[in-house]
Amino acid sequence: MHALVIEDDAITAMLMEDELRDLGFVSVDIASTEQEAIEAVARKCPDLVTSDGTLLSGSGLGAVRRIRDLCSTAVLFVTGDPASARRTMPRLPVLEKPFTIDQFNAAVKSALAPAC
Fold first, then answer.
1. Share of the chain above pLDDT 70, in %
2. Among 15, 22, 95, 102, whose CB has the most other CB atoms within 10 angstroms?
3. Nearest of 113, 58, 47, 54 to residue 78 by alpha carbon
4. Domains and CATH numbers, the chain
C-alpha cells in the first residue's frame, strides 16, 4: 500500500510516516504544500491520504479536493482545526491534533475500512 502525508510540520510528518509503515504501508510520500501534494498524486495514486488543513503554502483541504478529482483514495484529515475540515468535507474522517499514536492508528484503520 502507498500513502501520501500532507503535513508541513516535519516532525509530525515523520511520526505519521513511521506509524503508516508499521501499519503495512510499503511506501509513503510526504508533501508540505498543496502543490507538492498534487505532484505526488500525479506520480502515484495513494491508497490513503492524510492531510493537515492548513499548510505554509496552499491548503490541505484544497489539495484533497483536487486529489479526489484525480483518483479515488481514502482520506483522513489530521488537523488542529477539525471544525473547518468537517464543515468543508463533512463525509471525511477527521482526527484532531494533538493525537496519540493509538488514536492515529485507529483513525487510519477506520478511514481504510470499506463503507457499509
1. 98
2. 95
3. 54
4. 2-112 (3.40.50.2300)
